[in-house]
Amino acid sequence: MTAAPGRRSSTFxxxxxxxxxxxxxxERLLDSLELAPLxxxxxxLEALGGTxxxxxxxxxxxxLLEAQQGPGARRELLDTLIAAKPxxxxxxxxxxxxxALADHLTRHPDDWQAxxxxxxxxxxxxVEEFEAGLAQATDPVSLRVAxxxxxxxxxxxxxxxxxxxxxxxxxxxxxxxxxxxAALGIAEAAAPEDxxxxxxxxxxxxxxxxxxxxxxxxxxxIFVGEATEGTDETKAVRAATRxxxxxxxxxxxxxxxxxxxxxxxxxxxxxxxxxxxxTLSSHLAYYQRWAxxxxxxxxxxxxxxxxxxxxxxxxxxxxxxxxxKAAERENFVPDVQKMRRRVVENIPVAEVDRQLKLGxxxxxxxxxxVQLLQLVHGRADTSLRSGTTLDALRALAAGGYVGRSDxxxxxxxxxxxxxxxxxxxxxxxxxxHLVPEDEAELRxxxxxxxxRADPVADLHREWRRHAxxxxxxxxxxxxxxxxxxxxxxxTGEARLSTEAARERMVALGYADPASALRHLEALxxxxxxxxxxxxxxxxVLLGWFADSADPDAGLLGFRKVSDALGKTPWYLRLxxxxxxxxxxxxxxxxxxxxxxxxxxxxxxxxxxxxDGDGSGLEPRPRAHLEQEILAAVxxxxxxxxxxxxxxxxxxxxxxxxxxxxxxxSYGTEEQPAEADQGALVDRVGxxxxxxxxxxxxGTLRAVVRDGWGDDLPTRFAIIGMGRFGGHELGYGSDxxxxxxxxxxxxxxxxxxxxxxxxxVSEMRRLLQIPSADPPLLIDADLRPEGKSxxxxxTLxxxxxYYRRWALTWxxxxxxxxxxxxxxxxxxxxxxxxxxxxxxxxxxxxxxAVREIRRLKARMESERxxxxxxxxxxSKLGxxxxSDxxxxxQLMQLRHGAAEPGLRTTRTREALAAAxxxxxxxxxxxxTLDEAWVLAxxxxxxxMLVRGRAGDTFPTExxxxxAVGRYLGYGPGHAGDMLDAYRRTARRARxxxxxxxxxISER
Length: 1002
Prior knowledge:
The chain is mainly alpha-helical and 1002 residues long. It contains 45 helices and ten strands. The N and C termini lie far apart (97 Å).
């Protein structure tokens, strides 16, 4: 066949029009001897053009013709191909979709005749028909050949559209059932003595059990064995194990005809570490005592498929009641959701965007969501007890457990994604769930799904669209019907019953489902725009609340905030349009009492949660805080009003700090939890300390202005002590301070002292006035002479006292002294005064060291609360804050004069400096640092959760769980948290005993 120079042949042009990509190669194949009789047949070209890959189909047809045994066999194939449209569509459809099945036909050239039959029973074969197709197989090789022949017929109906994806998946599961039976039959024939000793049942799990198998998938099974009458049970189980192992090898091993598929028994009790075969009683004992939530989820699809049918039915009947009680287990929903998250986290980063099954918006999202709903409601509604995903989804919609529109969209998406998966696997008959990157493969997949205009672009668009639907709906699927049940808007739609809604709320972890449903009704009912936005937000929010230790508190808090701000134009728009805002709010409201209490006093602070770049939660610099507070003081009418304004700023900034801490500790969908726990502690300590300093500065200015105008007769400074001076304040810490003043020139010292005393008294009074804002308690007990001494002294008085009377503990306490407010020059001179005391030039004398050790020991024995567990007391217990801080401070007192790095008020900085100076090993420093950070986090957590300060872990289970979530422990792991704290504190105590008490001198 030739064409004029420079012109394409008409055949070449027709081939391109029919979808061939390599028309030149196709022309050569059509000119081959085998196809010569049909070279110009329009029927053949039309049929090839209708396949997923015309080039591949034509090449496969030529190979099949070449493999025929003589001219007569070739003529029969060609005649039948042209005369019988069903065969033409089936055969060419398979050749254009699967190189693996084309290879099979080349090796077994007569198997094309399996596609000729076109009868009703041939269109929908079941287990019986497949068993007949495998009946002649007597060994692994012949079983593989017969299996591929049956698979050929399933694939042919699938690619031609005779059967849909659900029907094809069911046929594949039926073929697997028939294959398992045939393989077990071969194993029993090879070992009749073993078969006589036992009854063995094969239980299909996973997709095979659910009647929704892929073309290439592990076939998950569980084996149950029992002794025949008169046989010892141990011998019977051994015999059953040999039969089961042989059956697995028959299916899994590779022969000259390839393999069928791996048989995977890892869903059995104890997984791969457990025995392959157990008796029924052994299975039940395990499930009743040891099984995890995911194991009951897996049993939802259990179905007897091979071996002793009575034993198989006994097994299913025995485990089913356990399956439908799984939702009653503690932390049921979080366990299931955590398992789903773990699956996603384990996907290699490079594959996430190509994962059709496991990735976000993939098949597993639909399956998990459906199974979760089945387990919650299937106990009361037996119509939901199907192992098949689409059947279960249909039943859930019919019962009102899922909205019909949501179910229809998920059904469509699931069918499309499964069809993609089938076409990807069918090509080479390899187990994969990754969308290929090769354009030719993508083109073939797109065309096989009916996307002919622009197959690659259309395939990507449809895939992303359906994945987006799944991503959007799979979590809402669980929560949206709750709103429909209480909002009662749409008519003619089945809804959750009150009892079903209650069951679902209990499964989510709500302790008071009736109140929770009332909150939902109040938020979502009605036809207003506000209610409509709430119905959009709540399904997602309910999921985030359920992911916390106290969903009830989260939902109640959300209702309160919504009641307070619902009429403002920006509130719901913020939550709807700024993705981070809604999740941040859910985290804050359900993490404990402190942050919600702060928010409720000024709900407009919710706006801080919504800045898209996260800057709304960044702590503000101290200079900015002081500037805002001092501006408010200037505008105020009197000291009381000024301090009220300052306390209002403090409340807002405490909320900002707490919210940032909670979000950083929990993490969000976009941002994982902060891995550096020390950074979280430092951020909170610095923010709260700066805020306290700014508040004191504003209060000082207000009191002075109100009583003396701008001319206080004495210079006045506030010195931070303890955690305040160390920039380590927690949410519930008092402000430890010293007050120092110095009379102005020409002012009588008595007059100056009276003025300074009035300033201190008024500051303390104003900061503790009962109001909606949290009080700021000022503690001056670290002053000279303690509670017996004057509240405020002149700089000269401090100098005289420290020169003559200073005790060791006072030098120790002054290690944390730092000016925080008032006259900067006076504060600087106070520091110059005390530096020789806290960093003595000759270090610390032995008697002073002994005195410090005595004080520490006495504090441990006298101040620990009665009845408290010392090992869990974060401040005074072994390895707690006091242990670490006194150890670091002893090094500062001894070596601060010689080592400038030690001259800091901050514990972690001083510890790092001691390590740099060689005063402590890297390992010991890391041990102390870890213990200090953890103990500080525990104190912060207790305040956040309970709303009041505490040094020990809460005893109430929900509060303890909330502390655990803040510290990074999932549901049900509070015990692990306490064990980890004890271990960390015990290691730190060992270092303290060596470095502080000198029990083992270096």
